[in-house]
């Protein structure tokens, strides 16, 4: 049988459905070098992390990230940008979030999800930002855009790839829902680059598919780590 577009011909990993690989990266507070800057136009693109070392690594069975604000912080917020910046946010010293087994700076961060999505039924799968990503998420699916089968390294990851879906708070041209046809049993590389630039933050990325009529972020049983 032929291999579906974007799928892997042979299983790229021999491991249980343990969830996607999750890595945290630094995200600059400055407008020119931040990812997901709040004005919806400034800063760097979703490839920026490929030249950085991760701060921490964990795993997750969810496509989403719970919302996080400044509640509970006793710090006095301040503006960390260069004076006269075109966009700004209030920074709370010591504010952290724990997700996927890792703890990171909740003010500004980037979380990168990588691994394989293996559908259990053939048909149309729909991925939606419901309602949004705060500040920015770019979702890649398939070996052409996420990463080549069995080659999740940063060196092999394509630059400037065309995403399946994306959402940037305050920007135009966001994709609400995107549908794609997937074949059961095949491994599809998946990569999601979520950046937050100032609290609050949240990522509401859900999916539905054959036998899964309810929109959910939970990909338990369908998600594999990039390596094991």
Automatic annotation (TrEMBL):
Domain PA14 spans what residues? 68-222
InterPro entries referenced in this protein's UniProt entry, alphabetically: GLEYA_adhesin_domain (IPR018871), PA14/GLEYA (IPR037524)
Q: Where is this region: Disordered?
A: 60-81
Which protein, by its recorded name, is this?
A: PA14 domain-containing protein
